[in-house]
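For concreteness, we quote verbatim a single protein encoded this way:
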Amino acid sequence: MLAYVRGALAHEPREQFRVLYLDKRNILMREEHRADGTVDHAPVYVREVVRRALELSASAMILVHNHPSGDPTPSRADIEMTRRVIEAARVFDIQVHDHVVVGREGEQSFRALGLI
């Protein structure tokens, strides 16, 4: 999965936000491009991310976005948005397994960093 998202996003000139929707066995159901942004921000609508998970009957999600600067360190805005998605998804028993930030310098996993 990391090789795929790294290849798809690491060199994009603008932020992109994608969601991997998973079934109850954690098998990928759908990967969707949810937002395009600027060089340092992509608008993420929590309601739309969770609504789509419900439409697909997804049991879990992995959030993915890039940092065009190359530095994959999560920003405060990234952390806050992820917290909001987790809280909204929890109401519907949908898990957020991870949020991966990709940049030319590598990637960072919220789970590995202890942020989830």
Helices lie at 2-9, 46-56, 76-90. The CA atoms of residues 87 and 96 lie 9 Å apart. The beta strands are 16-22, 28-36, 60-66, 95-103, 106-109.
